[in-house]
Amino acid sequence: MNALAMQQVKTEGKVRQNAKGAAKSAFAGRPVMALRSSKTVQVKAVRHERLAVRASARRENGVVQAATVESPAQIDQDTIMKCINTIRFLAIDAVEKAKSGHPGLPMGAAPMAYVLYNEVMKMNPKNPYFFNRDRFVLSAGHGCMLQYALLHLCGYDSVQVDDMKQFRQLGSKTPGHPENFETPGIEVTTGPLGQGIAMAVGLAAAEKHLAARYNKPDAEIVDHYTYCILGDGCNMEGVSTEAASLAGHWGLGKLICLYDDNKISIDGHTDISFTEDVCARFEALGWHVQHVEDGNHDLDGIRKAIQTAKAVSDKPSLIKVSTLIGYGSPNKADTHDVHGAALGAEEVAATRENLKWEYEPFVVPEEVYKAMRDYKIASGAEVEADWNAKLEAYSQKYPAEASEFKQLISQELPAGWEQALPTFTPEDKGLATRLHSQTMLNSLAPVLPGLLGGSADLAPSNMTLMKMFGDFQKDTPAERNMRFGVREFGMACIANGIGQHGSGLIPYCATFFIFTDYMRNAMRIAALSETGTIFVTTHDSIGLGEDGPTHQPVEHLASFRAMPSMLVMRPADGNETAGAYKIAVLNRKRPTTMALSRQGLPNLAGSSIDAVAKGGYVVYGTPEGETPDCILIATGSEVSLAVEAAEELEASGKKVRVVSMVCFELFDEQPETYRNSVFPPSVEARVSVEAGSTFGWAKYTGSKGKSIGIDTFGASAPAGPLYKHFGITKDAVVAAAKEVM
After folding, report:
1. Cα(11)–Cα(320) distance, rounded to whole angstroms?
2. Once rounded to an integer, what is the mean pLDDT over residues 406-433?
3. Taking a C-beta distance cutoff of 8 angstroms, is the pair 377, 155 a contact?
4. For residues 326 and 354, is the Cβ–Cβ distance under 8 A?
5. pLDDT digits over 188-217, tens only?
6. 110-154 pLDDT, tens per residue?
7. Taking all residues of the chain, what is their mean pLDDT, rounded to a whole number?
8. Active site residue 488
9. How far apart are CA 482 and CA 437, in angstroms?
């Protein structure tokens, strides 16, 4: 810990010893609220005054100097406090009306949030997607009324007073956690704690990468910060440390995180389970660390801490801001009661009286609109106009770079990019689809300037390196191979953040299919938040062999197919792998999970890139328009097995069709006429074969069909004996087909 932080810790310890007596003195003569006993009120008084006492002592000891960051011109301190209290009461009133929500965080974090939004961040409320805006992530997403209030007060059209009155109601622009696809001005979807700061790392990595690629010594067109407010719960979740470790390693100097240190979680005070030194942890991770001890009153301390953080260009910054959750509530502040429930009518009235707030619910004083909305709209238009002028000058000096940059941030794909995808014939050597995946990445990298990503310490196995590029590192951020280390969850969150940067970057990340269990929630957030992350997973079945059941996925295909908005691709050969990548790249608002084989597979005569877009298609045998005796359905490594079975059945005089079901989701979205052409309703003799759980196959095989798969865990052995042991063989498929015909 640095000397400043050590001095702050010592000072805080001394202040705590005297806080109770000082606070009693400060509250002497105040009326006792009838809601609680006088003893309780005195305790609450201590809670409200302790931070002010700490701040006074701190200033006397010279730990924090006077701020040099100034608030917007001509906004007096009384108006600033009115702005802060407006944020608090919009949150209080919305939660109260909904009878649901989390008022405590907005009440405590309002001062730091005000400084960030009104004094620090550059934005254009009338163009929420202005490229060079600063990004903000509320990692503690349960406190989302804080952000909705700020968006409204800063002039964003997406959140009006009526929207806040519909907080947490069906179809509103103010859902129970921030959702980027619902509310312009929200950068990423948060709620599951810890993922927000991890996605903020992705946003900051995207900025650093683009700045390194396109900025010139005389022209900076990529120059913005990523700010994040996180809470105790975020710091408890392991994913925050995974991502913070990478942020420190990468030296993301434009990532500034404010830690709302209110020491309350749902169970109560955090000292029942969380007593570590968070600042020391982040310092060990390579972050610059500061502590503002009085986050409720010390606006100058907050301003100076942010300015200091911005001056540190080679490290991300954590600013611990100690606050009182539910600040202003006489009877619920500093308790878990204010964390996740409405205050209740009596406590709302008591809080209004305590903070001298004379306005009716949802009323915003005109001077607050002038200080925030009018100021941010005017300054935002100027900020964007200045940047547009810079971009125009840049375009004149560096036309080639400007052309690529403009194409990238337009989020439109380059014309003809898909022509780079190779095609294959049966004469081409059969390869594992993970090797075909590597071919696709290296074919697409030169024609897709936004493609970047990497693996969770498995690049040589996942085959995810783009060979023409080096590694994205602290000193080489323009490179496009990202080394995530053994951090699957953090990796997926960071990739999602890159995808939500709004700059045309196409992120991919990779691991073994089994280890998607570590990052499933991030994959779900990608699907929910319309983020087109490409999840490249290899070793997709018992076919990986000797590593055994700890590494052999069984239920994973079925589980991801059950996830809304997730495309699950299990290609059978080179053409289908190319087709899967084409679909994945085209779907910028829908993530794709690639399930790729370790073992080699033959290239099929009937496969094609374009057919993959239909999800399932006839790859062999009786064509569409004719009626087969039996339909065999397979994915990935089992498609060639199904073809072998079909050939044997044909030799006995049967008409057989093999359907490659690359992607359930795409097939189910096809017109009924197409689906019926592949699976004629009159043909009930159907057999599916897949080296995974049989769950979910009945919708294709029907009540009279059969499914061959694995509904137990795997085993440790070479792939060949395993397939035979579990009955995934040509003979088993033939026998099942004869049984259903």
Report:
1. 15
2. 97
3. yes
4. no
5. 999 999 999 999 999 999 999 999 999 999
6. 999 999 999 999 999 999 999 999 999 999 999 999 999 999 999
7. 91
8. yes
9. 17
pTM metric for this prediction: 0.91
What letter does residue 228 receive in the DSSP assignment? E
Catalytic position from the list 293, 488, 576, 644 = 488
Residue 505, phi then psi, degrees to nearest 5: -70, 145
- The residue behind tokens 């009115």 is 82
**Res. 74 pLDDT band, cuts 50 70 90:** confident
Sign of CA dihedral 190, 193, 196, 202: negative
Alpha helices in 607-681 (DSSP H): 639-651, 664-668, 672-678
Phi–psi pair at 538, nearest 5 degrees: -120, 175
Confidence (pLDDT) at 71: 53
Distances from the Cα of 632 to the Cα of 447, 605, 687, 695, angstroms: 38, 17, 5, 17
Tokens at 604, concatenated: 């099929």
d(CA 594, CA 576): 11
Instruction: Find the length of the chain.
Output: 741
- 231: pLDDT strictly greater than 70: yes
The predicted pLDDT at position 29 comes to: 30
386 vs 195, 370, 380, 389, 589, CA distance in Å?
33, 23, 10, 5, 30
Instruction: Spell 529-555 as b/e; 16+ CB within 10 A means b.
Output: bbbbbbbbbbbbbbbbbeeeeebbbbe
- Token pair of 365, please? 């004083």
What's residue 716's pLDDT? Answer: 97
Give the position of tokens 């010594």.
Answer: 217
- Collapsing DSSP states into helix, strand and coil, what is residue 712? coil
Phi, psi (rounded to 5 degrees) for 149: -60, -45
Residue of 134, 332, 132 lying closest to 227 (CA atoms): 134
Rounded Cα gap, residues 419 and 523, in angstroms: 29
Q: Identify the pLDDT of residue 738.
A: 98
Q: Are 402 and 394 in contact (CB under 8 A)?
A: yes
Q: Specify the amino acid at residue 156.
A: Y
Does the pLDDT value for residue 40 go beyond 50?
A: no
Bridge partners of 630, per DSSP, are 656
Is the CB of residue 237 less than 8 Å from the CB of residue 193?
A: yes
> What's the rounded mean pLDDT across residues 670-695?
98
Task: Tell me the C-alpha to C-alpha distance, in Å, between residue 159 and each of 109, 154, 164, 362, 373.
Answer: 20, 10, 7, 13, 12
Q: What is the mean pLDDT of residues 84-108?
A: 98
Are 164 and 149 within 8 A, CB to CB? yes
